[in-house]
Every structure is written in C-alpha cells, then in structure tokens.
Design brief:
Layout: H1 2-23, E1 36-44, E2 50-58, E3 63-70, E4 75-81, E5 85-89, E6 101-105, E7 120-127, E8 130-137, E9 141-146, E10 152-157, E11 162-170, E12 187-189, E13 195-197
Antiparallel strand pairs: 1-2, 1-11, 2-3, 3-4, 4-5, 5-6, 7-8, 8-9, 9-10, 10-11, 12-13
Length: about 210
C-alpha cells in the first residue's frame, strides 16, 4: 500500500512537470463556456448550509436555470433570463397553485460564455483531487479548471459560496416544463382588488435572446 501511494505521488509530480513544460510562455486562458450545457453542482453555502443544484445554461435561448435542492427543503426553480428578469418559484402538488413565486429584476442578463475573459491567472493547484488551473476575476469569482480536459471543477464566489462540479454535459437541453414559470408568477391585483393574470407576452417578461 505504501509503495502504491509513493508511486502515485511520483506520477503526479511527473504530470505536473510535463504540463509545466508544455504550457510554455504566457499564462493559460480559461476555456469559454459551451453555449449549452448541464452541470450538477454540490454547493456549500457560506453559512454552512448545503444544496445540490442542477445548472442548465443555454446562451442561445438567453436562459439560465438553477434547480436548487436545499438540504431537507423544497425544490426551488431559479429561472434567469437575459433581459434581467429572474423567477424564483416552488411547484405545488397540482403544478398550478400552492406554490410560491418571487419575480425580481436585476438589470443584468446571464453570464456570457466568455465571462472569464481578462481573468487573472493565479497558479496551478489540486482541488477536489484534480490538477487545475486557477483564475480570479475582479475579486468576485475564483475558478478552477481541469488542466487536461478544460472542464470546470469548482468555482467560489467572494461571499464564500463554493460550487463543486460533480457532472458536466455539453449540448443538452432542459425540458420546457422545468423552465416555464407557472401562472401564479404572473398574478397581480387591479384597483378593485380583483385577481388578474399579467400578459405573458408583455415585453417585461419576454427574454431578450442572446445576440
């Protein structure tokens, strides 16, 4: 067993040396995100809470979806559109009511595939058992990418939230039933207190597709 560990250590050091030789001059550049992918994230929130997030990124559709399973909690749909509108909702037993919804306007769209352009390269290091290149940008995000495959392994935000990539699939698309906000997200009251449904085609709620 000791010999196996020693041999494994030698192989890791040899791999690092080989990679350093092949990198040459200039810092590595992070790979752009695919225009469409699915990632399963194990997340440790800054206050110690845990959650599993299914991230469905679709730049061509102008949509980013996080299906968030909080520990021993309800499944939260976080649907973000490129016009800056985000829907946070849970689904009730019959999918038409008994759920909660919060609509927020952030004024910014979803991350571009090249959002890591101009990131500052820090170093090569191991995280989660993978040899990674590490970048940071604007002291907002720290991003680890596997050296060999260029698949993201982990990213941390300035507020302490840490995301560990458990699965990464390119080119897959989320079913509409998982990203179409339910009707109760569009409810409002008129001056007489009558419950109305806002127009789903209202420009406020129609996403701007990525150009």
């Amino acid at each position: 067993m000791k010999m196996e560990r020693s041999w494994g250590s030698v192989m890791k050091k040899a791999m690092v040396l080989l990679l350093l030789m092949t990198i040459g001059e200039g810092d590595p550049i992070p790979r752009q995100w695919p225009e469409r992918f699915h990632a399963v994230l194990y997340m440790n929130i800054s206050d110690g809470r845990l959650q599993i997030t299914d991230l469905w990124y679709d730049w061509s559709a102008g949509r980013n979806v996080n299906l968030i399973q909080k520990q021993l909690g309800d499944l939260l749909h976080d649907v973000e559109w490129n016009n800056g509108t985000s829907y946070y909702y849970t689904v009730g037993p019959n999918s038409t009511n008994d759920g909660d919804c919060n609509v927020r306007e952030f004024g910014v769209g979803i991350p571009r595939p090249d959002f890591l352009d101009d990131a500052t390269y820090l170093r090569m290091e191991y995280t989660d058992g993978f040899l990674c290149n590490l970048w940071t940008k604007l002291d907002f995000i720290w991003y680890w990418e596997d050296v060999l495959t260029q698949i993201p392994v982990r990213w941390d935000f300035y507020d302490g939230i840490s995301s560990h990539v458990m699965k990464f699939e390119e080119g897959v698309e989320l079913d509409k039933s998982q990203w179409q906000a339910p009707s109760y997200c569009f409810k409002t009251l008129d001056n007489n207190g009558t419950l109305l449904l806002q127009d789903h085609n209202n420009k406020q709620y129609v996403p701007n597709h990525a150009s």
